Amino acid sequence: MKTSRWWQQCSVISFLLAVWLPAWIMAQTTPPTQGTTSPKPQNDRLQFRLVGYPRKHNEGRIEVFYKGEWGTICDDDFSLSNANVLCRQLGFISATGWTHSAKYGKGLGKIWLDNVQCNGGEKSIELCKSRGWGNSDCTHDEDAGVVCKDERLPGFVDSNIIDVQMDENKVEKVRLRPVVPTKKMPVTEGVVEIKYRNGWVQICDVGWTSKNTRVICGMLGFPDEKKRQKNQYHLHSVACVGTEVHLAACPLEFNKGNYRGRLRMITVRLKGGAKLGEGRVEVLRNNEWGTVCDDRWTLLSASVVCRELGFGSAKEALTGARMGQGMGPIHMNEVLCLGTEKSMWNCGFKNITSEDCQHVEDAAVRCNTPYMALENSIRLTGGRTRYEGRVEVLSTEANGTRIWGLICGGAWSTKEAMVACRQLGLGYANHGLQETWYWDSSNVTEMVMSGVKCTGNEMSLSHCQHHRTVSCQKTAAKFSAGVICSETASDLVLNAPLVQQSVYIEDRPLHMLYCAAEENCLSKSAASANWPYGHRRLLRFSSQIHNIGRADFRPKAGRHSWVWHACHGHYHSMDIFTHYDLLSSNGTKVAEGHKASFCLEDTECHEGISKRYECANFGEQGITVGCWDLYRHDIDCQWIDITDIKPGNYILQIVINPNFEVAESDFTNNAMKCNCKYDGHRIWLHNCHMGDAFSEEAERRFEKYPGQFNNQIS
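Structure tokens predicted for Lysyl oxidase homolog (714 residues):
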């Protein structure tokens, strides 16, 4: 009776922009189940880990801790269903593959399980069929491994050893149920409900505080609750007699407050993420962007970053350069936030010394973001996996009905594919395809969208430019757009200091430039030169291009379509790999060069990383993660022809992958700029930096380099 009377005092919580969940005061909308499974004794808990080499954090040999000892699982009868169960127990949402024959090296000690057969839906590997614990006829040459999807289950800590005992009262998700049904997204106010066991339950408001609300708002992707504005009325008071025909005729008193909003300088950003609200954390210090070391990196510190950027609380605090490695300075180490700070600069932290951290320790975050339901209006069909297929989108007919339709493949490119993959929640774009005849398994044949042109940053294809009425030259379904998505992507950046250090001028005789002329590496005036007499003046420098992403950079074209250049004796795997340009003060090109990929290969790699790509003997081309391709200053076409350039001040600009031919996680760091001073005999480069390395203020100062506006030496 006591409980019953108390319960009558509760009312369901609803509010603007979000809320938290003390499970011990929640009111269930469905009756509770009777009884719970008692937890296992402490010494019987199962633990799991991924080990071995070489591997990434989400893959490896699977090992189980049972009866006080770590052991492996045999690959006999192993399947993707087994891997799905194990990956979930490791804290990942699912598996993308599995390995056999000790791919990640042979384990030691016990082989705990053999002939494991799961359906895929089991909560634990111990619920699957097997020969029983410790009963195996395998050797460690048959140790199984798993490859998990790089996305964590909510509530799991980012650890390589996962304890599988789960709290029966664990809250999985939270939502706002609108009081009045609405199609408007995101939902910003309503009744708070939490996912509990197999249903949704509400929360009693006894003891509810604004701090609870802040936590819920953070989970739903909002930085805080919407606060009621006080004394912010432009019209302070009105005193009408009642006979006036217009409000303007009444005595009015206006608030004299200052309504000009303060512009807040953003000092933190996220880079390299596939989805909104995730990425490598970078902070602005002394007008230069740099990374944060992951020592003592926690959800509290990550949440301060997320809220500062306008998102909710942090879903994950990622370590070990999980969103790729940065370049340049590391500004902060051992960040220690309480969780209430307005900016990460208000948290405690240590300055960096060269011995403290390397970029392999760059911190990253995944933030809670508002649910927009964008994935409900797009789908892929016909692909071999859920990551590929023909793109179909929902369109609204004149009568209000919605059917599925196709997108015209004309002009469909990597940028549009990036947006499609983001909207689908499938990570990055590997390829954007203009023909999809090999995925012809759907009965949808009508083109409903054409002329799609995206910047690559949009959240949905509907946010991109497109034709108001469909206009498509090839209307057959096989000419509709398709995508291949990927959880990871490469990210190329140029070593800017090396360009500045290696620059010089060479007057090269024409008789040594026949091959270069054949590959269009000279300016147009070279065609009218008196060959083979005379020379061309060349601005030369070295280019060192690093892959700091999470996937190898591979040419889009297959080996069968590479072009052989007999003059230089190599294959070109990309038409244009890099643009070299000299710009005037107003951004006009005054000289240019281009570099087809002489041959993409691993020149050198960071310690512990092996080279994979080598051009010799028609070898595979690419740049491995953690490696770089070096184009030395003394090879053909590694220059800009400045024969026709007058003395003055210019900007040297280098752009990698300028046509977006190969997908990357971040294109904003593909350009490098330098101030360039040329006196007719010598050349100097200053302030060489990646296009997004400086603050806006520093970038403006760069553009106002002395003499830049009159193009005169200063």
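The first strand starts at residue 14 and ends at 16.
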